[in-house]
Specification:
7-stranded mixed sheet, 6-stranded parallel sheet, 15 strands, elongated
Length: 351
């Protein structure tokens, strides 16, 4: 065994059970068979895992078990009714439950709340955790809440999209500059001829989308100046709004040759293209490989997706949350960690 403090993984190996089972016994998350509970408790005692006033395997008061060095974490996601965020949530719950250094984990959704209400939710449910991760818009009220949590000892990591709070601890996501330029490269190279190109964003306050748009436009200025980039349209992450603005673009611009969708609501974009029979005329690049975008790739409605590798990203996020919450307080300029995950490029030929 390592000379470092024993972990739940060490107890699991000693007892011959999984980390999840050790977590259930030590944190009383769920009942297990008495023989299994006895094995876990005895293994923890042998390893001197930690101290706590509970009953030992003989029913007598004994100093055992309360995980030492483990962390309490929480995740805050935008919506609970979206396929993409549901996939994230499933992976977060599973990976956090299996992580040897995570003691407890919680999941919360903003679900259409205003930035002011999001800030209230963060302060209400973020306090008391060692670290939290959030995906949200960049807004002064949210940034203020993040700074207050940081001052209270809660390490705050951003996921997928960053914010400008001065005291956040780290960011995990793709390189959005590269994503925007890759999308522009694909549209310019796959288009049969130069023409007009539309850009859809969910909200200007999503910094990831803002950077994607800037980089997308930058590439065309540098490498494909014979294309015309139209004014950006907002979808507010809504499939209905996405369908509406896509329909407007198609109706107003018969010479539309490309469409970059860096936001949610892809279902609406796909439906609008199919309804007008324009899927063979417009090169479409989206983010996120979901059920609808996968089907659209197969059907030839979407040409390419730039997607976040869910499992690898969440693994990196949880590791960052655990590690950053173990650090002594540092000045924000020294404590921030930027973890960039290479994005996946999907076409009909490799899904």
């Amino acid at each position: 065994m390592s000379k470092l403090l024993p972990t739940m993984a060490d107890v699991a190996r000693e007892a011959g059970v999984s980390v999840v089972t050790v977590d259930r016994v030590l944190n009383k998350r769920a009942s297990v068979r008495p023989v299994t509970e006895r094995k876990v408790l005895e293994a923890a005692q042998r390893l001197q895992f930690a101290l706590a006033k509970i009953k030992d395997v003989r029913g007598e008061a004994a100093p055992v078990i309360e995980p030492v060095g483990t962390k309490s974490v929480a995740f805050f996601l935008l919506r609970g009714d979206d396929d993409f965020y549901q996939a994230l949530a499933r992976s977060m719950v599973r990976q956090a439950g299996e992580h040897p250094q995570v003691r407890t984990h919680k999941l919360h959704y903003f679900d259409g709340l205003s930035p002011e209400r999001c800030a209230e939710l963060l302060l209400q449910h973020g306090t008391g955790h060692d670290a939290i991760a959030l995906t949200c818009v960049d807004h002064p009220r949210i940034n203020q809440a993040v700074d207050l949590l940081s001052q209270a000892g809660v390490r705050v990591c951003t996921f997928i999209t960053d914010i400008t709070a001065s005291q956040r601890a780290g960011y995990v996501g793709i390189d959005n500059r590269k994503a925007g330029r890759t999308a522009a490269w694909a549209v310019s190279r796959l288009s049969r001829r130069p023409g007009k190109v539309g850009i859809l964003l969910g909200d200007h306050r999503f910094l990831c989308q803002e950077l994607c748009e800037i980089s997308f436009r930058s590439y065309f200025r540098e490498q494909a100046a014979d294309f015309t980039l139209l004014d950006t349209r907002l979808t507010f992450e809504s499939p209905d709004q996405a369908a509406s603005v896509t329909g407007q673009l198609l109706d107003e611009h018969p010479d539309l040759v490309g469409l970059y969708v860096s936001c949610g609501g892809e279902d609406g974009v796909i439906n609008a293209l199919k309804a007008r029979g324009r899927q063979d005329e417009v090169v479409v690049v989206t983010h996120d490989l979901t059920g609808p975008t996968r089907d659209a790739l197969v059907a030839g409605v979407v040409d390419l997706t730039l997607s976040l590798p869910v499992e690898a990203s969440i693994s990196a996020l949880i590791d960052l949350m655990v590690n950053t919450s173990s650090m002594a307080p540092e000045p924000p300029s020294k404590g921030f960690e930027n973890v960039l995950i290479p994005f996946d490029i999907n076409t009909i030929e490799n899904i």
